Amino acid sequence: MLTRLLLAVFLIPIFADAQSSFDVYVRVSADVKTGIESKTEFPTIQMALDHHPFLRADASGQQGRVYIQIAPGIYNERLVITQNHPRIVLIGMGKSPADVVITNSLNAVEAGGTFVSQTVEVNGSDFEADNITIANSDKSGEPAVALAIRSDRAILKHCRILGHRHALFADYGRQYYFDTYIEGDVHFIFGNATAVFDHSEIHSNGAGFITSQSRTSPDQTSGYVFLGCRVTSSGGDAKSKMMQTVGLGDPWRPYSRVVFIRTELPETVIPAGWWDRGDPANQTTAYYGEAENKGAGADFSARVSWVHQLTLDQEKSYLPEVFLRGSDHWDAKAEAERLP
Protein backbone atom coordinates (compact mmCIF):
# COMPACT_ATOMS: atom_id res chain seq x y z
CA MET A 1 0.00 0.00 0.00
CA LEU A 2 2.80 2.45 0.85
CA THR A 3 4.38 2.06 -2.57
CA ARG A 4 1.13 2.66 -4.44
CA LEU A 5 1.32 6.44 -4.55
CA LEU A 6 5.02 6.47 -5.39
CA LEU A 7 4.34 4.29 -8.40
CA ALA A 8 1.29 6.22 -9.58
CA VAL A 9 3.00 7.71 -12.63
CA PHE A 10 4.07 4.27 -13.82
CA LEU A 11 1.06 2.30 -12.67
CA ILE A 12 -0.90 2.19 -15.92
CA PRO A 13 1.77 0.54 -18.10
CA ILE A 14 2.96 -1.79 -15.31
CA PHE A 15 -0.56 -2.77 -14.33
CA ALA A 16 -1.53 -3.23 -17.98
CA ASP A 17 1.33 -5.67 -18.54
CA ALA A 18 0.01 -7.77 -15.64
CA GLN A 19 -3.57 -7.75 -16.91
CA SER A 20 -5.41 -8.39 -20.14
CA SER A 21 -4.53 -6.34 -23.21
CA PHE A 22 -8.27 -5.80 -23.53
CA ASP A 23 -8.50 -3.85 -20.28
CA VAL A 24 -9.37 -0.15 -20.28
CA TYR A 25 -7.66 2.39 -17.99
CA VAL A 26 -8.95 5.84 -17.17
CA ARG A 27 -7.87 8.44 -14.63
CA VAL A 28 -10.00 10.65 -12.38
CA SER A 29 -8.49 13.72 -10.72
CA ALA A 30 -9.50 17.24 -9.73
CA ASP A 31 -6.63 18.55 -11.86
CA VAL A 32 -8.49 17.48 -15.00
CA LYS A 33 -10.41 20.58 -16.02
CA THR A 34 -13.36 19.55 -18.17
CA GLY A 35 -13.10 15.88 -19.10
CA ILE A 36 -13.07 16.61 -22.83
CA GLU A 37 -9.30 16.87 -23.16
CA SER A 38 -9.03 13.15 -23.80
CA LYS A 39 -11.02 9.93 -23.53
CA THR A 40 -9.11 8.65 -20.53
CA GLU A 41 -8.97 11.56 -18.06
CA PHE A 42 -11.97 13.00 -16.22
CA PRO A 43 -12.65 15.40 -13.34
CA THR A 44 -15.44 13.28 -11.79
CA ILE A 45 -15.95 9.57 -11.28
CA GLN A 46 -19.42 9.58 -12.82
CA MET A 47 -18.06 11.21 -15.95
CA ALA A 48 -15.46 8.47 -16.19
CA LEU A 49 -18.21 5.85 -15.79
CA ASP A 50 -20.31 7.47 -18.51
CA HIS A 51 -17.57 8.20 -21.07
CA HIS A 52 -14.79 5.66 -20.70
CA PRO A 53 -13.72 3.78 -23.86
CA PHE A 54 -15.78 0.72 -24.68
CA LEU A 55 -14.55 -2.65 -23.48
CA ARG A 56 -13.15 -5.00 -26.07
CA ALA A 57 -13.22 -8.79 -26.00
CA ASP A 58 -10.71 -11.46 -26.92
CA ALA A 59 -11.32 -14.22 -29.45
CA SER A 60 -13.25 -16.27 -26.90
CA GLY A 61 -15.56 -13.36 -26.13
CA GLN A 62 -14.05 -12.67 -22.70
CA GLN A 63 -14.06 -8.96 -21.92
CA GLY A 64 -11.38 -7.06 -20.09
CA ARG A 65 -12.11 -4.67 -17.22
CA VAL A 66 -12.48 -0.93 -16.88
CA TYR A 67 -9.99 0.31 -14.28
CA ILE A 68 -10.91 3.75 -12.98
CA GLN A 69 -7.87 5.03 -11.10
CA ILE A 70 -8.94 7.78 -8.71
CA ALA A 71 -6.50 10.40 -7.41
CA PRO A 72 -6.64 11.30 -3.70
CA GLY A 73 -9.42 13.72 -2.82
CA ILE A 74 -12.99 14.08 -1.63
CA TYR A 75 -15.50 13.45 -4.42
CA ASN A 76 -18.92 14.87 -3.57
CA GLU A 77 -20.83 12.73 -6.03
CA ARG A 78 -23.64 10.24 -6.34
CA LEU A 79 -22.60 7.37 -8.60
CA VAL A 80 -24.80 5.00 -10.58
CA ILE A 81 -23.16 2.00 -12.26
CA THR A 82 -25.82 0.63 -14.58
CA GLN A 83 -26.40 -2.97 -15.68
CA ASN A 84 -24.85 -2.27 -19.08
CA HIS A 85 -21.58 -1.27 -17.36
CA PRO A 86 -20.16 -4.58 -16.09
CA ARG A 87 -16.57 -5.24 -14.97
CA ILE A 88 -15.97 -1.79 -13.49
CA VAL A 89 -13.05 -1.52 -11.03
CA LEU A 90 -12.64 1.56 -8.81
CA ILE A 91 -9.05 1.92 -7.60
CA GLY A 92 -8.05 4.51 -5.01
CA MET A 93 -4.57 5.87 -5.69
CA GLY A 94 -3.88 7.07 -2.16
CA LYS A 95 -1.87 5.46 0.61
CA SER A 96 -5.05 4.34 2.41
CA PRO A 97 -8.82 4.14 1.77
CA ALA A 98 -9.26 7.44 3.63
CA ASP A 99 -7.39 9.28 0.85
CA VAL A 100 -10.16 8.72 -1.73
CA VAL A 101 -13.63 9.49 -0.39
CA ILE A 102 -16.84 9.32 -2.41
CA THR A 103 -19.48 11.02 -0.29
CA ASN A 104 -22.94 12.52 -0.22
CA SER A 105 -25.55 13.42 2.40
CA LEU A 106 -29.06 12.26 1.59
CA ASN A 107 -31.63 10.42 3.67
CA ALA A 108 -34.78 8.50 2.78
CA VAL A 109 -37.13 11.38 3.58
CA GLU A 110 -35.23 13.80 1.36
CA ALA A 111 -34.73 11.28 -1.43
CA GLY A 112 -38.24 9.83 -1.43
CA GLY A 113 -37.29 6.41 -0.10
CA THR A 114 -34.50 4.36 1.42
CA PHE A 115 -33.63 2.68 -1.87
CA VAL A 116 -32.92 5.96 -3.65
CA SER A 117 -30.82 7.56 -0.91
CA GLN A 118 -27.52 5.80 -1.71
CA THR A 119 -24.25 7.56 -2.47
CA VAL A 120 -23.10 4.75 -4.77
CA GLU A 121 -25.42 2.36 -6.60
CA VAL A 122 -23.96 -0.67 -8.36
CA ASN A 123 -26.03 -2.73 -10.79
CA GLY A 124 -23.38 -3.95 -13.26
CA SER A 125 -21.97 -7.43 -12.69
CA ASP A 126 -18.36 -8.17 -11.70
CA PHE A 127 -17.91 -4.85 -9.90
CA GLU A 128 -14.73 -4.41 -7.88
CA ALA A 129 -13.35 -1.69 -5.62
CA ASP A 130 -10.04 -1.34 -3.85
CA ASN A 131 -8.65 1.26 -1.44
CA ILE A 132 -11.59 3.70 -1.42
CA THR A 133 -14.15 5.10 1.03
CA ILE A 134 -17.87 5.31 0.25
CA ALA A 135 -19.89 7.40 2.71
CA ASN A 136 -23.30 8.85 3.40
CA SER A 137 -22.74 11.64 5.92
CA ASP A 138 -26.41 12.15 6.83
CA LYS A 139 -26.96 11.99 10.61
CA SER A 140 -30.70 12.63 10.79
CA GLY A 141 -31.50 9.15 12.10
CA GLU A 142 -33.45 8.36 8.93
CA PRO A 143 -32.27 5.55 6.62
CA ALA A 144 -29.37 6.87 4.53
CA VAL A 145 -27.54 4.33 2.37
CA ALA A 146 -23.86 4.70 1.54
CA LEU A 147 -23.56 1.75 -0.88
CA ALA A 148 -26.33 -0.20 -2.62
CA ILE A 149 -24.91 -3.18 -4.46
CA ARG A 150 -26.84 -5.52 -6.74
CA SER A 151 -23.89 -7.02 -8.56
CA ASP A 152 -23.07 -10.69 -8.97
CA ARG A 153 -19.40 -11.58 -8.38
CA ALA A 154 -18.71 -8.26 -6.65
CA ILE A 155 -15.57 -7.67 -4.60
CA LEU A 156 -14.65 -4.89 -2.18
CA LYS A 157 -11.10 -5.08 -0.87
CA HIS A 158 -9.45 -2.75 1.64
CA CYS A 159 -12.35 -0.28 1.50
CA ARG A 160 -14.42 1.71 4.00
CA ILE A 161 -18.23 1.96 3.95
CA LEU A 162 -19.44 4.67 6.32
CA GLY A 163 -22.95 5.58 7.39
CA HIS A 164 -25.47 5.23 10.17
CA ARG A 165 -28.88 3.67 9.65
CA HIS A 166 -28.96 1.26 6.68
CA ALA A 167 -25.40 2.00 5.50
CA LEU A 168 -24.79 -1.04 3.23
CA PHE A 169 -27.58 -2.45 1.08
CA ALA A 170 -26.02 -5.80 0.06
CA ASP A 171 -29.05 -6.87 -1.87
CA TYR A 172 -28.34 -9.22 -4.79
CA GLY A 173 -25.79 -11.62 -6.19
CA ARG A 174 -22.59 -13.01 -4.72
CA GLN A 175 -20.48 -10.45 -2.91
CA TYR A 176 -17.08 -10.73 -1.23
CA TYR A 177 -15.77 -8.14 1.23
CA PHE A 178 -12.14 -8.56 2.29
CA ASP A 179 -10.21 -6.39 4.75
CA THR A 180 -13.02 -3.82 4.65
CA TYR A 181 -14.33 -1.49 7.37
CA ILE A 182 -18.12 -1.10 7.58
CA GLU A 183 -19.66 1.39 10.01
CA GLY A 184 -23.25 2.14 10.99
CA ASP A 185 -25.88 1.59 13.67
CA VAL A 186 -29.47 0.46 12.94
CA HIS A 187 -29.64 -2.52 10.53
CA PHE A 188 -26.61 -1.14 8.80
CA ILE A 189 -25.96 -4.24 6.68
CA PHE A 190 -29.20 -5.34 5.03
CA GLY A 191 -30.61 -6.99 1.91
CA ASN A 192 -30.66 -10.40 0.24
CA ALA A 193 -27.20 -10.93 -1.23
CA THR A 194 -25.07 -14.03 -0.85
CA ALA A 195 -22.22 -12.28 0.90
CA VAL A 196 -19.06 -13.16 2.81
CA PHE A 197 -17.34 -10.56 5.00
CA ASP A 198 -13.82 -11.90 5.39
CA HIS A 199 -11.36 -10.51 7.96
CA SER A 200 -13.14 -7.18 8.06
CA GLU A 201 -14.05 -4.76 10.83
CA ILE A 202 -17.75 -4.21 11.51
CA HIS A 203 -18.16 -1.09 13.64
CA SER A 204 -21.39 -0.09 15.40
CA ASN A 205 -21.46 3.66 15.99
CA GLY A 206 -24.77 3.54 17.85
CA ALA A 207 -27.28 1.16 19.38
CA GLY A 208 -28.95 -1.26 17.00
CA PHE A 209 -28.65 -4.55 15.11
CA ILE A 210 -25.76 -5.10 12.72
CA THR A 211 -27.66 -7.16 10.14
CA SER A 212 -31.15 -7.40 8.75
CA GLN A 213 -30.87 -10.06 6.06
CA SER A 214 -33.91 -10.66 3.86
CA ARG A 215 -33.94 -14.18 2.42
CA THR A 216 -37.55 -14.92 1.47
CA SER A 217 -37.53 -18.71 1.08
CA PRO A 218 -35.47 -21.69 2.28
CA ASP A 219 -34.55 -22.49 -1.34
CA GLN A 220 -32.58 -19.27 -1.80
CA THR A 221 -28.80 -19.51 -1.46
CA SER A 222 -28.47 -16.02 0.00
CA GLY A 223 -27.22 -15.09 3.45
CA TYR A 224 -24.47 -13.18 5.24
CA VAL A 225 -21.30 -14.82 6.54
CA PHE A 226 -18.87 -13.01 8.86
CA LEU A 227 -15.60 -14.92 8.85
CA GLY A 228 -12.62 -14.00 11.00
CA CYS A 229 -14.00 -10.50 11.47
CA ARG A 230 -13.82 -8.06 14.36
CA VAL A 231 -16.95 -6.35 15.66
CA THR A 232 -16.27 -3.06 17.45
CA SER A 233 -18.44 -0.29 18.84
CA SER A 234 -18.29 3.31 19.96
CA GLY A 235 -17.80 2.98 23.68
CA GLY A 236 -17.71 -0.45 25.20
CA ASP A 237 -16.51 -0.30 28.76
CA ALA A 238 -18.82 -1.01 31.70
CA LYS A 239 -19.66 2.67 32.17
CA SER A 240 -20.53 3.32 28.54
CA LYS A 241 -24.06 4.05 27.37
CA MET A 242 -23.30 1.60 24.56
CA MET A 243 -22.97 -1.28 26.99
CA GLN A 244 -24.83 -4.33 25.65
CA THR A 245 -26.77 -2.46 22.98
CA VAL A 246 -25.43 -4.12 19.82
CA GLY A 247 -27.37 -7.04 18.34
CA LEU A 248 -26.02 -9.43 15.71
CA GLY A 249 -29.17 -9.59 13.60
CA ASP A 250 -32.90 -9.74 13.16
CA PRO A 251 -35.02 -11.01 10.25
CA TRP A 252 -36.10 -8.43 7.69
CA ARG A 253 -37.75 -11.38 5.93
CA PRO A 254 -38.78 -14.71 7.51
CA TYR A 255 -35.92 -16.86 6.14
CA SER A 256 -33.15 -14.47 7.07
CA ARG A 257 -29.76 -16.22 7.30
CA VAL A 258 -26.64 -14.88 9.05
CA VAL A 259 -23.66 -16.66 10.61
CA PHE A 260 -20.65 -15.41 12.57
CA ILE A 261 -17.58 -17.66 12.50
CA ARG A 262 -14.27 -17.08 14.32
CA THR A 263 -15.23 -13.45 14.88
CA GLU A 264 -14.29 -11.24 17.81
CA LEU A 265 -17.37 -9.89 19.58
CA PRO A 266 -17.16 -7.05 22.13
CA GLU A 267 -18.91 -6.75 25.47
CA THR A 268 -21.44 -4.37 23.90
CA VAL A 269 -23.14 -7.31 22.14
CA ILE A 270 -26.44 -8.10 23.85
CA PRO A 271 -26.36 -11.50 25.64
CA ALA A 272 -29.28 -12.83 23.56
CA GLY A 273 -27.41 -11.92 20.39
CA TRP A 274 -30.43 -12.11 18.07
CA TRP A 275 -34.04 -10.92 17.91
CA ASP A 276 -37.16 -12.29 16.21
CA ARG A 277 -38.63 -8.80 15.59
CA GLY A 278 -41.47 -9.56 17.94
CA ASP A 279 -42.79 -12.43 15.80
CA PRO A 280 -42.16 -15.90 17.29
CA ALA A 281 -42.86 -17.49 13.89
CA ASN A 282 -39.52 -16.07 12.71
CA GLN A 283 -37.76 -18.31 15.20
CA THR A 284 -38.65 -21.38 13.12
CA THR A 285 -37.75 -19.90 9.71
CA ALA A 286 -34.74 -17.64 10.25
CA TYR A 287 -31.33 -19.33 10.43
CA TYR A 288 -28.73 -17.73 12.67
CA GLY A 289 -25.50 -19.47 13.59
CA GLU A 290 -22.26 -18.95 15.49
CA ALA A 291 -19.03 -20.91 15.73
CA GLU A 292 -15.69 -20.37 17.43
CA ASN A 293 -16.32 -16.71 18.14
CA LYS A 294 -14.24 -15.00 20.82
CA GLY A 295 -14.32 -11.93 23.01
CA ALA A 296 -16.55 -10.74 25.84
CA GLY A 297 -19.64 -10.77 23.62
CA ALA A 298 -19.20 -14.33 22.39
CA ASP A 299 -20.69 -16.12 25.43
CA PHE A 300 -23.14 -18.58 23.88
CA SER A 301 -24.83 -19.57 27.15
CA ALA A 302 -27.25 -16.62 27.16
CA ARG A 303 -28.10 -16.68 23.45
CA VAL A 304 -31.69 -17.11 22.23
CA SER A 305 -32.71 -20.76 22.19
CA TRP A 306 -33.24 -20.84 18.44
CA VAL A 307 -29.72 -19.85 17.35
CA HIS A 308 -27.51 -22.66 15.98
CA GLN A 309 -24.08 -23.59 17.26
CA LEU A 310 -22.39 -24.70 14.06
CA THR A 311 -20.52 -27.96 13.67
CA LEU A 312 -17.18 -28.08 11.87
CA ASP A 313 -18.84 -29.45 8.72
CA GLN A 314 -21.42 -26.68 8.82
CA GLU A 315 -18.66 -24.09 9.18
CA LYS A 316 -16.99 -25.40 6.02
CA SER A 317 -20.16 -24.83 4.01
CA TYR A 318 -19.90 -21.10 4.73
CA LEU A 319 -16.31 -20.61 3.60
CA PRO A 320 -16.09 -18.26 0.59
CA GLU A 321 -14.79 -20.97 -1.74
CA VAL A 322 -17.97 -22.95 -1.03
CA PHE A 323 -20.66 -20.40 -0.16
CA LEU A 324 -19.86 -18.11 -3.11
CA ARG A 325 -18.83 -20.76 -5.63
CA GLY A 326 -22.03 -21.07 -7.65
CA SER A 327 -22.47 -23.01 -10.88
CA ASP A 328 -19.73 -20.96 -12.56
CA HIS A 329 -17.15 -21.99 -9.93
CA TRP A 330 -16.32 -18.41 -8.99
CA ASP A 331 -13.18 -18.14 -6.85
CA ALA A 332 -13.72 -14.87 -4.98
CA LYS A 333 -10.52 -15.11 -2.96
CA ALA A 334 -8.33 -15.65 -6.01
CA GLU A 335 -10.02 -12.79 -7.84
CA ALA A 336 -9.51 -10.50 -4.84
CA GLU A 337 -5.82 -11.33 -4.75
CA ARG A 338 -5.48 -10.01 -8.29
CA LEU A 339 -6.56 -6.57 -7.23
CA PRO A 340 -3.58 -4.25 -6.71
Topology diagram in text:
Blueprint: H1 11-18, E1 24-28, E2 41-42, H2 45-51, E3 66-70, E4 73-76, E5 79-81, E6 88-92, E7 100-104, H3 108-111, E8 120-122, E9 128-130, E10 133-136, E11 147-150, E12 154-157, E13 160-162, E14 168-172, E15 174-178, E16 181-184, E17 189-191, E18 194-198, E19 201-204, E20 208-213, E21 223-227, E22 230-233, E23 246-249, E24 257-261, H4 282-285, E25 287-291, E26 308-309, H5 312-316, H6 320-323, H7 332-337
Parallel strand pairs: 1-2, 1-3, 3-6, 4-7, 5-8, 6-9, 7-10, 8-11, 9-12, 10-13, 11-14, 12-15, 13-16, 14-17, 15-18, 16-19, 17-20, 18-21, 19-22, 20-23, 21-24, 24-25, 25-26
Task: List descriptors.
340 residues; mainly beta; Pectate Lyase C-like; twelve-stranded parallel beta sheet; seven-stranded parallel beta sheet; 11% helix; globular; disordered N terminus
Report on this structure.
The chain has 340 residues and is mainly beta. It has a single domain (73-78, 94-325), classed as Pectate Lyase C-like. It contains 7 helices and 26 strands. The strands form 3 sheets. It has a 12-stranded parallel beta sheet with strand order 2-1-3-6-9-12-15-18-21-24-25-26. The chain has a 7-stranded parallel beta sheet with strand order 4-7-10-13-16-19-22, with no helix packed on it. The chain is globular.
